[in-house]
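Possible regression after last week's pipeline update?

I re-ran a chain I had predicted before the update to compare outputs. Posting the input and the new output here so someone can diff against the archived version. Not blocking, just want to make sure nothing changed silently.
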Amino acid sequence: MAAERSDEDRHRALAAFIESMLDRHGVAERQRIRALEGALGMSYTQVRRRMLGDAPWTIDEIKQLANHFHEPLIPILAALADEPGVPATLPFGGAAIPCTIWPVGEPLTGRIGPMVAVRDDTTGQWTVAPASEVADSPSYELARLLFERAPPKRVAVLDDDSDSAQSIVDFLSAKGLDAKPFDCATNLLAAMEDEHFDGFVVDWLLGENTAKDLLSKIRVRVPSGPLVILTGQIATGLATEEELVMVGASYRALLFEKPTRPLSIFNALQVGFAGSATAA
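New output (post-update):
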């Protein structure tokens, strides 16, 4: 019976992790089973049985889920461990690397060892650090530390000029982002039903329409991701600076006039990703 309860606990922990992952990706509660159906190619019944713990998850299914949502695999697998790990960050080379840790024992001051875990009692966040750097602060011994390269940020690039969209995608991809081109708002919105995007680059004029309605729909689904608006029509009068300034303020977007250096777009996205991480 003890083993059965342990299995139930692991299934419950994995389901809770998947729920929190979908929440981070902005998937509404009523849409979660549908999102998992699309990610795994399963029926509603199959997905529901796994989320309720009535059927086990396979390793291949977990890998497929991680790939679909561009999530690191280790934190998901950690939910299946006898003692689930906790998310933490490992500062290294000026960056904060996401990791999963298993702190043990009680917090003590002056620990000796290569690495320890420190918990911020105000935010509840965990950080891994060399013991020598936090000698005056209570820290926890680490039983296990796991980390892997974070998946690249995903960016949707929308321009009805497909060559223009592709040139931006090529540059962003060369810089390590996972960028995808779109030539109309309908295709982008359809993709967002099944895919998550961390940032957006959108041309203001799409045919005879502006992107205003699209920006509103993007912000409903991705409230805090970087959003870049491109336009080359201010000088022609087809776009007005006043309206663009208002739209930028309303949807927390940055405006660039064409021709725009791709590096400027990349830097704007990077600043936006950093801001989103801080807000989270």
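Follow-up from reviewer: compared with the archived run. The longest strand covers residues 95-108. Marking as no regression found.
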